[in-house]
Amino acid sequence: MLLTNCPDRAVLVLELDLNEQIDGTANIDHLLGNARWANLRVLRLRGVNCRVPELTRFLIAHPSLEELALAQMMPGHAWTQLELPSDALPNLRHLECSSAQTAALLKGSEASSRPLETLLGIEVHDTVVDSRYFSWDDDWEDEDHDDADEERPSPWKVLFLEGLKAQRSITRLGVVSIRAPEEIETLSAVAPQVREIEIRTERDFKILDAEWHRLYSLFPALEVIRGGNLIWFDPWTEGLTSEAADKANVQLQALARSCPRLRLILVGLRAKKAVIIRGGGESASNVGVRWVVRKWEENESPYIKDGERVYGP
Question: How far, in Å, CA of 42 to CA of 95, rounded?
């Protein structure tokens, strides 16, 4: 039905909620091999798999794509075989996939000509465990892989970093996990232009607040921090208690000093956010910054609205 009844489709979201360890993923080679949607701008896929030829043909045939989110098994272990011509995906602005997939898609200097602004879902671990990144596919099962659960050097880290360094248009970065501060140092060295970042951590990852401030400061252009690593607002209550406001203010002042361009902290999806109010000759290094808390759907204007509670000095 998708192939025949939706010729003008602009958005396609196909997300299958499967237990990949038990059920595997659904193959969509037929869909990719036969679909031609001239107006397709957004494609989001999860819980599916495909082979390299079908994925390559599909991406080449849809130059209108602006937002692309790939399932982890697209094309799975065959990611090294994925290569696109220099004129593929000329309008791509938002890419959401693993570091392995990103390494393949950003391979070569031609990738830097794409207007890519947002890259989500990546990591730069030194070592990886195959079974945490890929589920089984037919090609993989035909071979002997007793080491799927063993830790080994990342086969895509170097290639990924080369592609990221060449793609200077990326200003928003989403890191799915870090194991050591050095990983953020590496990212800041190759992508210092990042203005918006989200950093998720491994469950047992713990560092001091001051170290978080330092890591964020490594991005000199940083304006927006996503995630609740240092600050959290209860989304279900109005306003902040005095204790919550004091704790948040300590973090906000430290972050404002570390990141002179910081203007917004988005605590979480559909959660509250902190908007930093700068102006009037105010210096974060001296008296600090003022800030307000707003709901996720409210605007991010750095101006105080009537009746809005203001925190800080």
Answer: 10
Q: Is the pLDDT of residue 229 over 70?
A: yes
Q: Tokens representing 311?
A: 């925190």
Comparing C-alpha atoms, which of 114, 23, 121 is closest to residue 63? 114
**What is the distance in angstroms between the CA of the first residue and the CA of the last residue of the chain?**
60
- Measure the CA–CA gap between 176 and 129, rounded to whole angstroms: 15
Question: Among residues of the chain, what percentage have pLDDT more than 90?
Answer: 62
What is the DSSP secondary structure assignment for residue 225, as one 8-state letter? E
**Nearest to 43, CA basis, from 74, 18, 65:** 65
Q: How many whole angstroms separate alpha carbon 17 and alpha carbon 235?
A: 27
Cβ atoms of residues 18 and 47 within 8 Å? yes
Which helix (H) or strand (E) element contains residue 180? none
pTM summary value: 0.92
Residue 295: count other Cβ atoms within 10 Å of its Cβ. 12
127 forms beta bridges with 153
pLDDT in the model for residue 22 = 44
Helix H or strand E encompassing 193: none
Q: What DSSP element (H or E) covers 278?
A: none
Residue carrying the six token digits 């799915």: 176
Model confidence at 143: pLDDT above 60: no
